[in-house]
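Customer escalation, tier 2.

The customer says the design service returned an amino acid string that "doesn't look like it belongs to this structure." They asked us to rerun it and document both sides in this ticket. The original structure tokens are below, unchanged.
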């Protein structure tokens, strides 16, 4: 069983493959010859996730899923949220994005935050959606060297360590992406869709 994961982010691909490897074969955009950036023109995770999956389904005629993730910080009214990839301006500049979060959270007491992932799946033109959330807090400085994006400044509730201090398997067992992918898998395993 094969499914395309429509993402340009190699870290997302790595996390998804490690969770899905014994269940289905994940193809990357490279595997199907899609080299271009995917469009993300909306201001909700749900719309952007669907836009990315729909772009690949329409242009490459393959069943696929995509995901959009946001870091939502209470004290910043949900920012960076849907703009997480380009919070500081340049798309995907994790260091600049973390610097800006730390600056905006300086001296802020309420550090509650969550990661939210929306997966959009398209199979034979039919659209499905899955959500994953992990709650936690924004640290005062970077801790740890693993993971990607905002992982060094996010500590999930119930743990003493940041996401960037956790082995991939541990992060995935509690993360937003892990939860959304487990919902995707249980849908695929329990439904009669062919992919
Ligand atoms: P695609 O759209 O191609 O999938 P992207 O990197 O642009 O890749 P998003 O639009 O979903 O992905 O942006 C989300 C940003 O949030 C991303 O750039 C990361 O910096 C950050 N992010 C996403 N998942 C994360 C995680 O598990 N841990 C830490 N940061 C994460």
């Amino acid at each position: 069983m094969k499914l395309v994961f429509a993402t340009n982010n190699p870290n997302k691909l790595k996390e998804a493959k490690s969770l899905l490897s014994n269940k289905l074969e994940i193809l990357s955009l490279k595997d199907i010859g899609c080299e271009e950036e995917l469009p993300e023109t909306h201001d909700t995770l749900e719309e952007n996730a669907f836009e990315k999956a729909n772009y690949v389904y329409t242009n490459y005629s393959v069943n696929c899923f995509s995901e959009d993730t946001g870091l939502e910080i209470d004290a910043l009214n949900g920012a960076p949220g849907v703009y997480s990839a380009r919070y500081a301006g340049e798309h995907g500049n994790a260091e600049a994005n973390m610097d800006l979060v730390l600056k905006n959270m300086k001296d802020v007491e309420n550090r509650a935050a969550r990661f939210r992932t929306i997966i959009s799946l398209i199979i034979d033109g039919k659209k499905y959606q899955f959500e994953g959330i992990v709650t936690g807090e924004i640290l005062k400085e970077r801790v740890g060297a693993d993971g990607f994006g905002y992982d060094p400044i996010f500590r999930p509730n119930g743990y003493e360590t940041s996401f960037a201090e956790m082995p991939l398997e541990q992060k995935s067992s509690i993360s937003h992406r892990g939860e959304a992918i487990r919902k995707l898998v249980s849908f695929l395993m329990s439904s009669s869709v062919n992919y």
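Tier 2 assessment: The sequence is consistent with the input. Residues 43 and 178 are 23 Å apart (CA to CA). The chain has five helices and seven strands. Sent an explanation to the customer and offered a walkthrough call.
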